[in-house]
Each structure stands twice: as C-alpha cells, then as structure tokens.
Amino acid sequence: MDSAELKERVRELRAEGRSPKEIARALKVPPSAVAPLVRAIAAENAGGGDDREAELIGCWMSVGWSNGLGVDPARGWTDEAPDAEGGKVSVLVVRRHNWDKLTVVGCLADVYCTGIKHIIGPDVVDERELRRFREFFFSDYKGFQEVPVELARHLVFGADDYARSLGVESHEEIGQLSGLLGDWEGPSAITFGRRGRPYYVPDTYDDPQKVVHILRRKLSYDEFDYDI
Questions:
Q1: For 208, how many CA atoms within 13 A lie in the half-sphere containing its CB?
Q2: 223 phi/psi in degrees, rounded to 5
Q3: 219 pLDDT higher than 50
Q4: Is residue 82's pLDDT more than 60?
Q5: Strand-pair partners of 63
Q6: The pLDDT value given to residue 45
Q7: 215 SS3 class
Q8: Distance between CA atoms of 184 and 198, rounded to whole angstroms?
Q9: Would strands 56-62 and 144-146 be described as parallel, antiparallel, or unpaired?
C-alpha cells in the first residue's frame, strides 16, 4: 500500500484503540514506519479539525537535562543546573483545554540510550491540581525550569529517534505527546548519548539483558557503555 493508504489504515486501527505495536503487527510493517504516522494523527486529532493550536500554558523540564548531551549553541537553550545528574529527563507540557481547565502530559526520557520510558496523561486538570502535580512530578530532581516548547520537542522526539536508531523501541504511546508538543520533523539540534556514546542504565521495568542484546545487534561492545 502507498503512504496515504498506510496512514488511513493506521488511523482506523488507532481509532479502535490499538497500540502502535499492535498496528505494526496487523499491517505487517516495522514499528518505525507506524510511529511517525501515529504522531501525525494524534496532532491532527488534538486540533479537533481546527487548525489553531491550543494555547500553550507552560512547558517545564528537569534541571540537568543537558548534562552529557551536545546542544546547538545557536538555539540559545539554557540549563539552570547543568552539573545536576543527567541521563533521565522529565518533561511536562500544558495547554488550554477550555476556559477553566488545562490539558497536561508528562514523560520521562532516557536521553543516553532508550528514549521515552514513561508517559503520564494527557489528563485534564484545573490550575490548583496542576501546581500540586508539577511539584510531585519533579520531586526526584534538584529542580525544574520553564523551557521553550521547541526544546521539549527536540529533546523528546529526538531521544525517541535516537533510541530507534539503536534498535530500541521506546514508549509505544509516544503519539500521545504530539498533540501537546506539536509537529516534529527533525533532525534534532541535540546530540544524544552520554558525550556522544550510548550509555545504558536499566530502568525499573527494563529487561537489562534484552536491551544489551538489542544494542549488540547494532553496535560492538566498544561502541556503547552500560551499567547493569
């Protein structure tokens, strides 16, 4: 099938509640072919048929986000605590839902290796609930800072692309982020990996041996680092 037919089939299966991996299996195509289509469809759906993007209320990121990464200095993006522990970065983005409600989504990105690990939301909250949730969401870090949504796009979708380039499929529901972060074309202005090298540190729900095996399909042992 051509690209238009593939997108329409993905749209139909997504409407049935299928995950990106389930869609890929059903259509007999690689998950990497489905993921960008799911993102695009999510962004279209978020607009509800209206080309106007919902008002951005705020975008925040854990400090230390740049530690170990290469960042294009021309972008002017700053890290308020660049020496804070890096590798795992949390991102929270909020847009207007209606006059008294907000739509919020958060994610955890492993920017050194495995991409998007966890996604919370999208959820609809009021301003009071947002303040409480934001403090909880960043409670494991030294702090958080407000950032341009463009930076969040480059970090989140760039980390996902980086993980896929290593053969690692990150969070299957990443398409849910597109509606709030906006469209992504790439390439990212961020160089991922710890100082340019993949560095794998297991997450709570990982199968570490499986991840290392996946990395070995793409890389030799002297091309990546790990701590398991």
A1: 10
A2: -105, 0
A3: yes
A4: yes
A5: none
A6: 58
A7: helix
A8: 23
A9: antiparallel
What length does the chain have?
228
Residue type present at position 86: G
* pLDDT for 206 beyond 90: no
Which of 212, 192, 210 has its CA nearest to residue 200?
Answer: 212
Q: Is residue 126 within 8 Å of residue 102, measured between CB atoms?
A: yes
Please report, in angstroms and rounded to a whole number, the separation of the first and last CA atoms in the chain.
42
Residue 128: phi, psi to the nearest 5? -65, -45
Q: Residue with structure tokens 């890929």?
A: 24
- 31-68 per-position pLDDT tens digit: 778 777 877 776 665 554 444 467 889 999 999 999 99
The whole-angstrom separation of Cα 151 and Cα 129 is: 25
Q: Which of 156, 145, 157 is nearest to 77 (CA)?
A: 145
Q: How far apart are CA 145 and CA 221, in angstroms?
A: 36
Q: How far apart are CA 224 and CA 157, in angstroms?
A: 21
The answer, yes or no, to whether residue 24 has pLDDT greater than 50, is yes
Per residue in 108-125, pLDDT (tens digit) is: 999 999 999 998 888 899
184: left (phi over 0), alpha (psi -120 to 50) or beta: beta
